[in-house]
Specification:
Length: about 100
């Protein structure tokens, strides 16, 4: 994995932008300079986030969302585990 988060990511498993390993690593979103923890989907290049609209749900039981536009910054909350662990395991096996 790289240290750059994806340009477009969604927490909805039915979305084409859903990526489980990236979500497990943890993504932080800063929208208009404020940390947001309620983001359902985001796009950095297009400059928008999608957040749940209270506890309202649609007829399929999914939360209703609203699209907010503005500057979006995404970052990983935890470093990649695979990069450091693989090299340490290989070095230990050679000894």
């Amino acid at each position: 994995m790289t240290d750059t988060p994806p340009d477009h990511l969604s927490i909805d498993p039915s979305s084409p932008y859903f990526d489980q390993p990236t979500l497990e690593r943890g993504i932080g979103i800063r929208f208009k300079g404020v940390e947001r923890n309620d983001v359902e989907e985001y796009s950095i290049s297009e400059g928008w986030i999608r957040v749940a609209l209270g506890k309202k749900v649609d007829r399929r039981g999914r939360p209703l969302t609203i699209k907010l536009t503005g500057p979006v910054e995404a970052y990983f909350q935890r470093p990649a585990d695979n990069e450091g662990d693989d090299s340490a395991d290989e070095a230990g096996g050679d000894e």
